[in-house]
Amino acid sequence: MDLTINNENGAAVARLRGEIDHHTAKKLRTELDKYIINFRPPSLAMDMSGITFMDSSGIGLILGRSKLLKECGGSLEIRGAQPYIRRVLKLSGIGRIVRIS
Amino acid sequence: MKVINEIKFIMPSLSVNESAARAVVSSFLIQADPTVEELSDIRTAVSEAVTNAVVHGYRGSSGKIELTVKLLEGREIYIRVKDSGCGITDIKQAMEPLFTTAPEEERSGLGFSVMESFTDKLAVRSKPGKGTVVTMRKRLRVHGS
Predict the structure, then answer these.
(1) A21/B contact by beta carbon, under 8 A
(2) Distance separating alpha carbons of residues B75 and A9, to the nearest angstrom
(3) B144 inside domain
(4) Domain total in chain B
(5) Complex ipTM tops 0.90
(6) Is the pLDDT of residue B37 over 90?
(7) Tens of pLDDT along B61-94?
(8) Whether A74 contacts A44, CB under 8 Å
(9) Domains recognised in chain A with CATH numbers
(10) Which of A19, A57, A66, A85 to mutate to test the interface with B (most CBs of B within 10 A)?
């Protein structure tokens, strides 16, 4: 699992690579929260194009970050999810809370 | 139904083994030549079942998780995930979408919903204090149909 967060023209973009499960979500959660709390970005996009697997642990990860961002005055966007990851996103109904593009 | 091939994989309840379980299932199912979508569905369902055993079955303790995968006649896949953990008191409630006993760990309560949606048949048997057995079945499409 690999994570890089960059500020691109004032918008924060987190690029995730690898598999998101209960095991890897713990580390991602810590790193993303550290960034959100330190930089309080008005918007954060999670670029999922490099994610090869995600189960419902990913839903918990997205919901948790969305909540924290909101508390810090920002919003979360999910982008680049592959079809098999979109199936999990769709099943969860998370699209009603987080913008998926 | 006649068993064509089967595999059993026993692992300690370490979260790092969630990906090991998925890898075992993927490798075993190559012989059945599933579609990318079928394989992805099965891997996701297995990941949910093993994670449940790690997070809930052996909460605050540790033990063994047994994963059995069978290839049955008629391109049917049988999967069983067994733990000897704390068990589930109320299975019906546990299977309700969004129900979780571990919100502080950001568990979404969607594990059983995913298993149910991504396979054809899901059964959960559990005895408090004894453990939980999750079985799932999924029939693979016949190529060209």
Answers:
(1) yes
(2) 52
(3) no
(4) 1
(5) yes
(6) yes
(7) 999 999 999 999 999 999 999 999 999 999 999 9
(8) yes
(9) 2-100 (3.30.750.24)
(10) A57
